[in-house]
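Record 1 of the preview.
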Amino acid sequence: MSLDLRGAIVRRGGFRLSAELSVPSEGITVVFGPSGSGKSMLLSAIAGLHRLTAGSLAFNGRVLEDVAGQQRTPAHERAIGLVFQDARLFPHLSVRGNLHYAEHRRPAARNAPITLEISRLLEFEELLDRPVKNLSGGERSRVALARAIVSAPELLLLDEPFAALDGRRRRDFANFLKAYSRDQGVPMIVVTHLIDEAAELANHIVAMRAGRVICSGRPADVMTRPEFADLLAPRDRGAWVQGAAGFASGDGVWVRADSVLLASAEPRGISARNVWPGTVSGIVREPDGAILVSLATAKGYILSRITLEALADLRLAEGAHAWAIVKAHAL
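->
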């Protein structure tokens, strides 16, 4: 089963979104791209807040919108939860009131955590009677997510959910989303423009630019493609790695080229936990004079940015053996 957009077009002002897309209805799909690429508009179209001007949208075989067939399911009947970047809580209600609103509107046949349970899971039980106007940005984000979950959606859409979070709270939030999606079987589509978030969350990834989907698929496939690399700032260039030291075996992490050291001989007696042998598959000189070395390893293609002097000292060339070295705390 899947979420399918066929020939879907959405227009808003002078902006045009065009999407031909199929994503699995399980796990977490990350929509990645620079600001202004149409990521938030895509979520709004799926939720039913923006009408398609052409094409169709179906979820798990149920047609939600078909322009040619003049069929459209209203947003409130789609069983889709949407959490906006700015939370959009009801300002006249307390935290408890916002959650009770969602609890009373959810279909009786679908289960989801109730108010007290979700407040404990997301660690804001002490905020239940607080007016939402007195919440911090991070607290608002957690309450908005809780309200969406309490409504028992069949699909959960999250627009930049970590924007107001940092440090431990951000990591805990990411872990909660992954565990909830996996354990409760609720698929999620998460929008982000940050490569670290995309790598950490994605079971499936959709890359966008200028209102179009440029590629989609598994992170291991999509994040190695040249068109995906073109979306990144130079200092964000790197590689998606699964099972790095310091992370769970199934977790993905983005390893920036600037975080990778290279050795021309097998390193011994060092503290770094990630040491990956490989073969040099490419050497490119960047516009600023830095050298970007691609190393084919058992973890995939690892990129390392080094100086021209280091390249000469290590005597690296295509086909040579080398070792990529990454400290766990650099990830």
